[in-house]
Amino acid sequence: MTEITGSTNKLLTINVSQQSWEVKRIEEKNRTSYLGGKGLGLKIYYDTLRDHLADIDPLGKENPLIFMAGVFTGTGAVCSARFAGVTKSPLTGIMITSSCGGPFGGALRTAGYDGLLISGKSDSPLYVEITSGNVMFHDAQKIWGMDTEETQKAAGLSKWDGELVIGPAGENGVLYANIKSGHRFLGRGGMGAVMGSKNLKAVVVRGHAYKVRPAAKQMFHKVRSRASRFIAKNEFSDKYRSFGTAYNVLPGIKAGYVPVRNFKYRTDDRFKLLSGEAMAEKYGTSSSSCIPCSIQCGHKGTFPDGTVKQIPEYETTGLWGPNIDNYDSDKIGEWNLLMNRLGLDTISTGGTVSWAMEAGERGLRKTELRFGRTDNIAGIIDDIAYRRGEGAELALGSRTLSSRYGGKDFAIQVKGLEMAAYDPRGAWGQGLSYAVANRGACHLSAFPVALEVLFRFLDPYTTKAKAFWVDFFENFYAALNSLQTCQFTSFAYLLEPFPVRIFPGFLLKRAMQYLPSIAVRFLNFGVLNKTWESITGIKLSQKDFLRAGRRIHLLERYMNTQMGISQKDDTLPGRFLTEKDTNHPVNKTVSLKPMLETYYKRKGYDEHGRPGKKDLKALGIDDAYCDRKE
Ligand code: SF4
C-alpha cells in the first residue's frame, strides 16, 4: 500500500450541480497556520466566499459544505477518529463547525484527501461515491426517504469505508437536521439540512488506498505512549469510560446546573434515575465508541424490550428528561434512537419542544405538548422530521418560534442555537461561554462548567477569573479541535503531566481562581503539539499552538461579524439574568455584564464586538481589511 507522510494537502472539490470534481492543493502555510481540520475548513470557507459572507443563503447552492480530516486522523494517534464539518448554518445564519467521531474522516485520509468541499445543488436526489482516483455520481431516488440506518445499509459499506448520510429531517430541511457517520453525528446547527438542500442523500468514501504514516515515527510512538498513560491515569477519563457523559448527572443535581422544565429550575433529585451510574446498572452497558479511542465514552446497552440501543448522552438525557418532566430512561432511549434514525439534533429538538411546552402552558401558542406528558413525544419527533402539522413550525427552532409568538426570555438559545443541558445559573463561567461562543449556546467552546463544578477549581458563583479561562479554553479548544482529536482528552493532558500533577489540589485551585495568568504557565499540553510535530515534521511550540487557536477563534468570530453578529448578540436568555427561583438553595442569577466587559478586553473586540484590526493583522487573518480605511 502506498504511504502518505503527514498529509497530502489535497482538497477534493465536488460540484453536485454539474456532477464534476477536481483536486485542489491546500497551501502548506495555511495548514500550519490553521492546524488542519476545523481551522483549515474555516479558512477555506473564508477564502472561497470572503466578500459574500453576509449574502450566502445557507440552503442555497452557493453555500459550500466542507468536511476536513485532521492531521491526527487516520494515523492511529490517541482518540484520533474525528473530522470536522464547516458551513453556514440555516438555524443560526452564522458559521457552524462540528466535530464527529465517525469513520468518514479516516476513510477520506486513506483515500488520499485531507478535505472535501461540496458545492452546488443537484436537480434530483444523488449519492456520491469517492475512491482514491475517482468520483462517481449515482441516482439516489431509491434511497431518498430512507432513515439514516437504512441508508447506511444500502450504501454497502466495508470496514475501510466511511460515509455521511442524512435522514428524512435533512431531506425536509429541518433547520437542525444532522449528518450521521457510523453511529456518530455532526450534530449541531443543521448541516443535515444543508446537505439535503443540495439533494445529496449520502457521500461514501472507499478508503484504504493509502497508509498515513508520521514523519517522525519514533517521536510519534513515544508521544502516543505518554498520551495513553495520561489517559489511563486520569480520573475524569475513567468516569467517562465507565458511565459515559451521563456521569455528569449526579454532580449537576448537587451543583444545580441541570435543566428542569425548560430550564425554569436547576435541580431535581429524580434526575438520579437517569444518571450514567443508574443506566450502566439497568442496561448492562458496554463500549460503543468512536474508533480509535482510549477513553470510550460512548455506550450501548440492552433495554427491557430486548433491543440493544445506544445509551443517550448527558445532553439528550437532560433535555428529554427533567427538562420536559420525564424520568423514564427507557423512553429517552427510544426517542434518542428515533431522532438518530430521522437525523435530528437531540439538543435543538429537545430545546424547541420544551419551549413549546412552556409557551403552551402560558397560553402563548396552542399545542398538546405538556410537561410530564410523554405519550405524544414520539409523534411530534416524527412530525418535526417530516414537517407535518405542528412539526412544520417546530422544525424552525425556538428563536424563530419565540419571535413569532412571544416568550423570548424562555427560548433557551443564544444566536439561534439551543443550549446544551447546563444551566448557567449554576456555573457563571459557563454562562459567559454560552453568551460569547462562536456557534451560539455551545457547551464545548470553552466548557468552563468542568472547571467550576466537575473539578471544582473555580467558584461557580463569582465573576473572578472567568473571562481569563473562557478566553484561554476557547483558543486551546479551537486548536485541539482542529487537530481533530477528542476534546475529552484535554483534562488528562492538562492535569496529569508534571508539574501540575504534583501540585496540592488546594494550591492549584487558589492559583487558578486568584492568579490565573501565573497558573496558566504551569499547564503542559506538550502531547498535543508534539504529536502534531511528529506527524507533520514541522516544529510547533505550545505558544504556536495557542496562537493558532486564537487565530482560528478570531477568524470565526470575524466571519460571524460579517454575517451580522455584534455585541448585542453576546447575551443569555432573559431567564438566566432575571429569574432567581430555581429550587436550588443558592438563589442567584448570572452576573454576565462584568464578565463580558473583561472578556471583550482580553479578546481585543471593539464596542461592536468585532475583533481588532491589530489582531487581525498580527495573526495574518485579513490584511486587506486591516489596510482599508473605515
Ligand atoms: S471520548 Fe467519546 S466522543 Fe471522544 S473520541 Fe472517545 S468515544 Fe468519541
Structural account:
The protein is α+β, with helices and mostly antiparallel strands and about 625 residues long. It folds into three domains: about 1-215, Aldehyde ferredoxin oxidoreductase, N-terminal domain (Aldehyde Ferredoxin Oxidoreductase,  A, domain 1, 4-Layer Sandwich), CATH 3.60.9.10; about 245-405, Aldehyde Ferredoxin Oxidoreductase Protein, subunit A, domain 2 (Orthogonal Bundle); about 425-625, Orthogonal Bundle (Aldehyde Ferredoxin Oxidoreductase Protein, subunit A, domain 3). Helices cover about 40% and strands about 15% of the residues. It has 28 helices and 19 strands. Strand 18 and strand 19 (about 415-420) form a beta hairpin. Helix 12 (about 330-340) packs parallel to helix 14, helix 17 (about 430-435) crosses helix 19 and helix 19 packs across helix 24 (about 540-560). It is globular. The protein starts with a strand and ends with a helix. Bound molecules: iron/sulfur cluster. Iron/sulfur cluster binds near residues 290 and 488.
Q: Could you give the distance between the termini?
A: 55 Å
Q: Give the number of domains.
A: 3
CATH topology of the largest domain: Aldehyde Ferredoxin Oxidoreductase,  A, domain 1
User: Which term fits the overall shape?
Assistant: globular
Give the biggest sheet.
Answer: 6 strands, mixed
Count of helical regions: 28
Which CATH architecture of the largest domain is right? 4-Layer Sandwich
Average pLDDT number:
97
- Poorly predicted regions are none
* CATH class (first level) name of the largest domain: Alpha Beta
> What's the multimeric state?
single chain
Strand order of the largest sheet: 3-2-7-4-5-6
Number of strands: 19
Identify every distinct bound molecule in the structure, by name, code or SMILES: iron/sulfur cluster
Q: How large, in whole angstroms, is the Cα Rg?
A: 23 Å
